[in-house]
Design a protein that fits this description.
Blueprint lengths: L8 H6 L11 H5 L7 E4 L5 E7 L4 E6 L4 E6 L2 E6 L5 E6 L5 E5 L4 E6 L3 E6 L1 E2 L2 E2 L6 E3 L5 E4 L23 E4 L6 E5 L5 E6 L5 E6 L6 E7 L5 E9 L8 E3 L5 E4 L3 E5 L5 E6 L4 E7 L5 E6 L2 E6 L10
Length: 312
Amino acid sequence: MKQKKDFSPTVKRLKDVPMDNVDNSSLFESYLKTKTFSTLYDEMLWGEGPCYIPNKDMLVWSDIPNNRMLKLINNKVSEFRNPSNFCNGNTLDNDENLISCSHGGRCIYRTKDYVNTTTLVNFFEGKKLNSPNDVVVKSDDTIWFTDPPYGILSNYEGYLGEQEYGGSYVFRFNPLSKQLDVMSKKLDRPNGIAFSYDEKKIYIADTGENIKHLYVFDLDDQDNLFNQKLIYDFKPFFSDGFRSDIDGNIWTSAGKGIKCFNSKGEIIGQLIVPELVSNLEFGGKEGNILYVTATSSLYYIELNQTGAKFPK
């Protein structure tokens, strides 16, 4: 059944804004087999959080305003969970359990065997989280996530509510000790989050009212963030979700396209996408399929490059 296309004000405001021009480097061109995206599905309100599950050869992602999650298996799309409690970002832990950010539950979920879902964390110092947005798991099993208030600002992507702890933090949760630590209070509305290939750096987007930045931080041996650097100012668009590849490049949503930055923070290329992009994920058995969630659609493109979690 076709979904109602009642897009958010952000999508409506940016849909006709032109993209800037980027001259692709020869390195970036070498990653491309084609520049044309193929459409796999086009019945969403705001697709987000694509997560590839290798042992199932399955892609799972969120359609937040429609309060559901979808899955792609053998090029066929069906519902993974409905209702989803307005899940947003998704990733895998090191045991290939699905880790999801829930706007509705104001929590982080873990789904074992892709069936049994439990709440991992939903309070900070006795107060509700805002609406966890994006999540990444480190090799030491800690779960890092951002917590802006987007899911409690209205009933469109969650439930209208109040910010209880008075900020928008970046958190680290240890699922063994149940310890929840604040890793950063510096960002206005932290959004996308991803580690570099070697986990020596962490990339975090800030999508506050007048801030549309992608930052990179260095990490010390105790996981302290330092040496914050601006990678790019995306205004009027924003960096929402991103992934690292095996060479340390970061591929990020960037308005109606995808921008790629090398490990030095230099832009090396851009791909244009037909709609406003939210997020992306490397998948496929070889790790060289780039899946892209963009407003109402799921797109894909085959590359000559693979994602960071796929061994060389």
